[in-house]
């Protein structure tokens, strides 16, 4: 079975070149609006979605955005990165194979967006600023499920029985039955897409950040905390939901109180209300 999984990884489409190029251009404070516009306008699907997103409630547009240039100027750097990534990545989540984890592919997308938003809320709370690299890793943390869903579906009863016996987490049961788990598959996809180590590690270890060396742990711990927070809130929790071993040291790692995390829950619910069009209408 693991051989089939690895072959399936090779069939994952390349990460959208438009998303990569825009993400590379925007960190420069003197980025050229014209250059960004020229990159986006040649990808019809992303261009259409950028127009839709920029006119959405989530991005708070008070005027009708009529062109890609207007959208780039209006959204600004941080919001444009989010919009481009959402517009480029959502197409990959519309796959029937993920039904091994969820009843509908959109549930996985909703969970992924929620974890990405929560990662930024937590980042603001813990370190005082947002982190776009963290946002990317959080948005793609479950990308391995795009490949693994069909194998989990076919082995679902065996996996759930192992979890039900109380001896294994869902991740460990995946590995025992299929030979590999969705987090490791996600890491391999990140390698295929030539993502930097800080994104690869956050994806590959988002359930076990404690296995990373100290200096590489931060983003993985943050994605772990954002992911667990969303699962606790019941956002996009599929078949695996809370069937993972909790890691008590996450709050100690960030020196954060449960009351602070609960405050972040409230902020996330507010953001998700305005992000419904982003989640369901792309």
Description:
The chain is an all-alpha fold and 282 residues long. It has one domain (2-280): Hypothetical protein af1432 (Orthogonal Bundle), CATH 1.10.3210. Helix content is 65%, strand content 0%. It has helices spanning 2-11, 17-25, 33-41, 44-54, 68-89, 105-127, 132-139, 145-154, 156-164, 170-178, 182-192, 197-204, 218-232, 249-254, 258-274, 276-280. The longest helix is centred in the middle third of the chain and has 23 residues, at 105-127. The two termini are 33 Å apart.
Q: Biggest sheet, in brief?
A: none
CATH class: Mainly Alpha
Shape: globular
The name CATH uses for the topology is Hypothetical protein af1432
The CATH architecture comes to Orthogonal Bundle
Q: What is the tally of beta strands?
A: 0
Separation, N- and C-terminal Cα atoms: 33 Å
* Chain oligomer state: single chain
- Helix/strand/pairing class, anyone? mainly alpha
- How many domains would you count in the coordinates? 1
CATH homologous superfamily designation: Hypothetical protein af1432
List low-pLDDT spans.
none
Give the helix level as a range of percent: 55-70%
- Percentage beta strand: under 5%
What are the SSEs and their pairings?
Elements: H1 2-11, H2 17-25, H3 33-41, H4 44-54, H5 68-89, H6 105-127, H7 132-139, H8 145-154, H9 156-164, H10 170-178, H11 182-192, H12 197-204, H13 218-232, H14 249-254, H15 258-274, H16 276-280
Helix pairs in contact: 1-11, 2-3, 2-5, 3-5, 4-5, 5-7, 6-7, 6-13, 6-15, 7-12, 9-10, 11-12, 12-13
């Amino acid at each position: 079975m693991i051989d089939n999984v690895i072959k399936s990884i090779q069939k994952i489409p390349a990460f959208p070149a438009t998303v990569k190029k825009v993400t590379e251009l925007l960190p420069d404070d003197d980025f050229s609006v014209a250059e960004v516009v020229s990159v986006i306008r040649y990808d019809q699907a992303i261009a259409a979605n950028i127009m839709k997103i920029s006119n959405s409630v989530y991005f708070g547009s008070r005027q009708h955005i009529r062109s890609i240039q207007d959208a780039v100027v209006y959204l600004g750097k941080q919001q444009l990165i989010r919009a481009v990534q959402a517009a480029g990545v959502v197409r990959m989540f519309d796959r029937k194979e993920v039904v091994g984890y969820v009843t509908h592919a959109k549930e996985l997308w909703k969970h992924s967006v929620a974890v990405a938003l929560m990662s930024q809320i937590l980042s603001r709370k813990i370190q005082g600023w947002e982190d776009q690299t963290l946002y990317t890793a959080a948005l793609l943390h479950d990308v391995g499920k795009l490949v693994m869903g069909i194998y989990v579906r076919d082995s679902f009863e065996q996996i759930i029985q192992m979890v039900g016996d109380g001896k294994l987490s869902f991740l460990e049961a995946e590995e025992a039955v299929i030979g590999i788990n969705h987090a490791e598959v996600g890491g391999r996809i990140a390698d295929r897409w030539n993502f930097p180590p800080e994104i690869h590690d956050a994806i590959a270890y988002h359930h076990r950040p404690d296995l990373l060396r100290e200096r590489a742990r931060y983003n993985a711990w943050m994605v772990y905390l954002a992911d667990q927070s969303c699962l606790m809130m019941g956002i996009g929790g599929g078949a695996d939901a809370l069937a993972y071993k909790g890691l008590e040291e996450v709050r100690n790692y960030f020196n954060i109180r449960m009351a602070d995390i609960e405050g972040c829950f409230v902020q996330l619910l507010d953001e998700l209300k305005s992000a419904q069009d982003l989640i369901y209408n792309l």
